[in-house]
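Appendix B. Chain record.
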Amino acid sequence: MKNLKLFSILFLLSPVVFISCSKGTAGPAGPAGPAGPDSTLHSAWTQVTMTFNTTDSAYEQAITAPAITKAVLDSGLVLSYLSYVNSAGNSFVFNASEGLNVTYTVDTIYLISTKDLSYANTGWSYRYVIVHGTVTTGNSLSSGPGKGYTKQQLLEMSYQDIKKLFGLQDNISSN
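Structure tokens predicted for this chain:
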């Protein structure tokens, strides 16, 4: 009888417990997730600031690039560009490999030259673009905006064509 009385009380109070609970308001949105496998990332334009390395008699700059992963190096593509703005305010962009030796490793890009091409001397700024994707056996990308293009075709495209293909935003300034 005691158990029946206890059960009856619990049974009668259970709707009160369920009804008195309500869902609160939604909290703030969380941070953006990591880039998807077919996304394209790009750095901001940064000033070239090379230093002379007496060991190899070259001007060098190491740029930290945490978005360059082993997966990007194995199956994606990194593109590099130099820009400058002339005294009339016109901006010019060209492939960085035309003026520098550019080497990519996990997390770092190395710019190397026999001349000091620092911003103070040339007005040059640097940007990299990471194209994620899967490279097929024919050396072309099989997904994303670059689908069907080979690495070589993308490397040879003008910056304007790359910007249009991947929807890059451009904020070139004279810094």
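Further analysis of this model is presented in Appendix C.
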